[in-house]
Amino acid sequence: MADCPIHLLKSLPIWLLFLLAIGSLSLLKLALNVLCWVYVNFLRPPKNLKKYGSWALVTGSTDGIGKAYSFQLARKGLNLILVGRNPDKLKDVSESIQAKYRKTQIKTVVFDLVGDLDEGIKRIGEAIEGLDVGILVNVAGVGYPNAKYFHDVDDSLISDLIKVNVEGTTKITQALLPGMLKRKKGAIISLGSGAANLIPSYPLYSVYAGTKTYVDQFSRCLYVEYKKSGIDVQCQVPLWVATKMTKIRKASFLVASPEAYAAAATRWIGYEPRCTPYWPHSLMKAVLSLFPESFVDGYILKYSLAIRKKAQQREAAKKQE
Ligand SMILES: NC(=O)c1ccc[n+]([C@@H]2O[C@H](COP(=O)([O-])OP(=O)(O)OC[C@H]3O[C@@H](n4cnc5c(N)ncnc54)[C@H](OP(=O)(O)O)[C@@H]3O)[C@@H](O)[C@H]2O)c1
User: Fold this and answer.
1) Which atom belonging to ligand 1 lies closest to the Cα atom of 192?
2) For a pocket test of ligand 1, which of 110, 243, 281 has the largest count of ligand atoms closer than 8 A to its C-beta?
3) Distance CA 115, CA 113 (A)
4) What digits encode the pLDDT tens for the residues 25-41?
5) Are 55 and 79 in contact (CB under 8 A)?
6) Domains plus CATH for the chain?
7) What is the pTM of this model?
């Protein structure tokens, strides 16, 4: 019986037993986390989105993520209210959705979020009158044209970032909530950013990251406020998606195409208050969390400075032409 595991364990010093117990618990926690990650990313069934209502309103529907989101929602059988600032692009998007999903009813609202917000909200109010709008997707967003130190950011960019990313998201959400409260159901999805959540800082994009931190905490508070009223509020947090905002043309393992992002994103509606729907992004988040924050800060600063340098060189070359 000398090699019985119980006897072996009894012969070990108490400090080693303690370390073994902690190690086993950590391994168990890691295994559970991995299983949970696999389940929520690949196995969990998506919600039936039509249970929220038969209409969805999408801002930023004329390009990138918002456009792909609109196609996904139409595919799931929802009618759409597409909000955008450019009437021609709105017409194009609604015609191509209609061509693919013939049964989808589509309304459009022209709304420039850097313009008169009250006037735009009034137009949204008129468009949703009498409709059971169950889903709101706040996608419209403004980013930096290039990496910039804060003292170099001009006033008009600061104003656009705050107006579109913060005020627009807030006021459109406020306009849609009363109907959802009345019907006791709804889903409010807002696009946050990895710049605010997945990395410790986003130097040279400070105002953008700040506005997205607002979106994240705003959504989290609403999630708690309205959970009991049947309204699922969620902030979706991507890293890179190949759109005109990022100026990345080609999708790759870590850079989602708008279509792949939107397909993953609609699967998460109605679940956690904050999520990173595209699984390679959440893998990246886990990898980043292994490094000290100061190291990641330094790495991202270097990356942003390289982008700034390239932009400065392009500007200098243009001036010489
Ligand atoms: N791409 C990424 O890697 C990434 C990562 C994290 C978070 N996000 C967030 O995802 C959202 C969508 O970004 P995206 O990458 O799809 O960018 P995008 O391709 O540039 O699309 C942005 C959308 O917002 C609309 N928009 C911009 N300014 C507006 C204004 N003043 N009034 C009304 N609509 C306006 C644009 O309209 P037009 O078509 O008229 O330009 C477009 O439909 C943003 O909130 C962004 O912060 C993106």
Assistant:
1) 7
2) 243
3) 5
4) 999 999 999 999 999 99
5) yes
6) 44-297 (3.40.50.720)
7) 0.94
